[in-house]
Amino acid sequence: DIQMTQSPSTLSASVGDRVTITCRASQSISRWLAWYQQRPGKAPKLLIYETSTLEGGVPSRFSGTGSGTEFTLTITSLQPDDFATYYCQQYHTYVWTFGPGTKVEIK
Amino acid sequence: EVQLVQSGAEVKKPGESLKISCQASGYSFTSQWIAWVRHIPGKGLEWMGAIHPGDSDPRYNPSFQGQVTMSVDRSINTAYLQWRSLRASDTAIYYCARQFSGHYFFDYWGLGILVTVSS
């Protein structure tokens, strides 16, 4: 299986900060990567697919870049609703696998 | 509006059986795969497998093959995940999620079911 890693595991930030989360794959996954947001006690929510395509209704402060083995999720101006855990997921190679998550917490 | 409504939390003893459900609405149930994802807090998310309601064709993550069974009831737009004999290590939150048409990421999720297995 393709192993996904994320860094950092926890990130402390303030409202208005620019935040970047990195996701790495153990082998190339082209651009077949999705990002999810999970608030405490809630289901994961799809934010981005195919590396950079925003799901409908997702604010434009979220963006994704990358290809191959290294990807980033950027939030340009952190809002109170954005304090959550973020997961990446590869869907290039069966079995689909997720990263371990990055928790964005209030500084 | 697409919704996936999951059954309630479960507390079971090791060795007991369990079947949890996920009822879909707001779209054509038979047209898109339903996946099951396990979440052990602190250990991330794991794709357990998926089933296509159109033909009840399941695909299992090899790590879960033989441990669980996926099924559907098309008459009530419901997908199921079943264990014959639970273990303490099955304690987790289980999500159902719809696979985006023709792709392998997940655009709608249920709220999750906490399954606790303890003697």
How are the SSEs placed, and which strands pair?
The complex is a heterodimer of chains A (107) and B (119).
Chain A: E1 4-7, E2 10-13, E3 19-25, E4 33-38, E5 45-49, E6 53-54, E7 62-67, E8 70-75, E9 85-90, E10 97-98, E11 102-106
Parallel strand pairs in A: 2-11
Antiparallel strand pairs in A: 1-3, 3-8, 4-5, 4-9, 5-6, 7-8, 9-10, 9-11
Chain B: E1 3-6, E2 10-12, E3 18-25, E4 34-39, E5 45-52, E6 57-60, E7 69-73, E8 78-83, E9 92-99, E10 106-109, E11 113-117
Overview of this protein structure:
The complex is a heterodimer of chains A (107) and B (119). Chain A is mainly beta. Chain A is built from no helices and eleven strands. The termini of chain A are far apart. The radius of gyration of chain B is 13 Å and the shape is globular. Chain B has no helices and eleven strands. Chain B has 119 residues and is mostly beta strands. In chain B, the strands form two sheets. In chain B, strands 2, 4, 5, 6, 9, 10 and 11 form a seven-stranded mixed sheet that branches. A four-stranded antiparallel sheet of chain B has the order 1-3-8-7, with no helix packed on it. The interface between A and B is medium-sized, with 21 and 21 residues.
Return the string of H and E elements of chain B.
Answer: EEEEEEEEEEE
Largest sheet of chain B: 7 strands, mixed
Q: Radius of gyration of chain B, Cα only, in angstroms?
A: 13 Å
* Uncertain parts of chain B: none
Main sheet attributes: strand count, strand direction, barrel closure of chain A: 7 strands, mixed
Shape of chain A: globular
The averaged pLDDT of chain B comes out at 95
Span between N and C termini of chain B?
A: 40 Å
Fraction of residues in H or I helices of chain A:
under 10%
N/C terminus separation of chain A: 35 Å
How many distinct beta strands of chain A? Answer: 11
Largest interface: A-B, 21 and 21 residues
